From TrEMBL:
InterPro entries: Gfo/Idh/MocA-like_OxRdtase_N, Gfo/Idh/MocA_Oxidoreductase, GFO_IDH_MocA-like_dom, NAD(P)-bd_dom_sf. It comes from Bacillus timonensis. Residues 5-118 form the Gfo/Idh/MocA-like oxidoreductase N-terminal domain. The lineage of its organism: Bacteria, Bacillati, Bacillota, Bacilli, Bacillales. SUPFAM superfamilies: Glyceraldehyde-3-phosphate dehydrogenase-like, C-terminal domain (SSF55347), NAD(P)-binding Rossmann-fold domains (SSF51735). It holds the Pfam family GFO_IDH_MocA_C3. Residues 134-258 form the GFO/IDH/MocA-like oxidoreductase domain. This is Gfo/Idh/MocA family oxidoreductase.
């Protein structure tokens, strides 16, 4: 096998983008094996753009056709685990779209099944892990350049969505259709990056607003307080109603600080001595000189790095890496089993607000599922008119 034949399940915005990237030759070790969509209208689209690619309306039929070596699940979130398991059952490699699922119980089942098929490649589309900026931030943290983390703070409100976005279809921004709002639709990449770079919190306390500024049932405003269990804390803020938006990620360590602005610029401030050492050795005279800008010695050095992002480059990097793992065992950038961490964080933020109290991670998956089902039932009885 020189190229992996990918079966694309769902020819929507994301599936269409992947098909385009592959057709343009931007993923050299991959070709489109087949396309599947339950919407018959997509058949005409596929036939026009990719006339030589087989089209299926049933994904199982596509998997059993012999036309695909691997699949990608560009479908509603609830279906990601189910379709991944069905692929692995048939010895077909699987690339799950983010998030890995809606609730940890279904993601755990997927991970356990994947673990029983170690000869197959199971990955997840965490394309931000290929972003040179975040790779650099992780490298700095892992190398201990800013020491032990004391606090994380990410304000990511660049997800503005007008009411018309939610009104496009009945399933959008519903508990039954999507399983949540900004946490499961827009912010999964940041939830993954937060734990990938800084580690998983041990506890979460959140204040979440549902249908705060939009006529929807799910969350459009989130503030979460994170407790890492070792004294370090964090704040995660996101929403879909800030039309000017902010993207600022700060990581404070005992030997420095990292500030990421707009996912484009990184400012690294490295202390010349650890903060504790300064605190224990400086006289108040020394401190006053620092405050007044009269100190002859700088207490930190500053490095500024700027990054440019090419549209699609991160997605094609994950596709290429996924195919390379299948073809020659190249290590995965984002193993599929990692997907549970972001779902765990989203579930914890939801559950804390559902119960009105701090919750521990991992969350009780049965309690979470029961609370989610309550909201699905309530939504059925009292649907929001869009």
């Amino acid at each position: 096998m020189k190229k992996v034949r990918l079966g694309i399940i769902g020819l929507g915005a994301q599936g269409g983008a992947y098909a385009g990237f592959i057709a343009e030759g931007r993923v050299p070790n991959m070709e489109i094996g087949a396309i599947c969509d339950i919407d018959p209208a997509k058949k005409a689209v596929a036939n026009e753009k990719y006339p030589n690619v087989p089209f299926y309306e049933d994904y199982i039929e596509m998997m059993e056709s012999g036309n695909v070596d691997a699949i990608v699940t560009t479908v509603p979130h609830y279906l990601h685990p189910e379709m991944t398991i069905e692929a692995l059952k048939r010895d077909i490699h699987a690339l799950a779209e983010k998030p890995a699922g809606v609730y940890t119980k279904q993601v755990k089942e997927m991970n356990e099944f994947a673990a029983s098929k170690p000869e197959l490649t199971f990955a997840i589309m965490f394309n931000q892990r290929t972003n040179e900026l975040y790779k650099k931030v992780k490298e700095i943290i892992d190398n201990g350049e800013i020491g032990e983390i004391r606090r994380t703070n990410w304000i990511i409100t660049t997800w503005w969505r007008p009411q018309g976005y939610y009104d496009q279809s009945a399933w959008r921004a519903t508990w039954e259709g999507e399983g949540g709002g900004v946490l499961v639709n827009q912010a999964p990449h940041q939830l993954d990056l937060l734990q990938w770079i800084c580690g998983m919190p041990k506890k979460v306390y959140s204040n979440v607003k549902y249908g705060y500024q939009r006529n929807i049932a799910v969350e459009d405003e989130v503030t979460a307080l994170l407790d890492y269990g070792n004294g370090a804390t964090g704040v995660f803020v996101t929403c879909t109603h800030d039309v000017v938006g902010t993207d600022r990620f700060e990581i404070l360590g005992d030997k420095g600080k990292i500030i990421v602005d707009d996912s484009k610029k990184v400012t690294i401030k490295r202390l010349t001595r650890p903060e504790n050492e300064m605190s224990n050795s400086m006289s108040m005279q020394d401190v006053m000189k620092i405050f007044m800008g009269q100190s002859e010695d700088s207490i930190y050095t500053e490095e500024i790095l700027e990054f440019e992002s090419v549209w699609g480059a991160q997605h094609t990097s994950v596709l290429e890496n996924f195919a390379a793992n299948i073809l020659d065992g190249t290590p995965l950038i984002a193993p599929g089993s990692d997907g549970i961490n972001g779902v765990q964080l989203a579930n914890a933020i939801h559950l804390s607000s559902f119960l009105g109290k701090e919750v521990e991670i991992p969350v009780d998956e049965e309690v979470y599922l029961a609370e989610l089902n309550k909201r699905i039932e309530e939504e059925k009885k009292n649907p929001i008119e869009k």
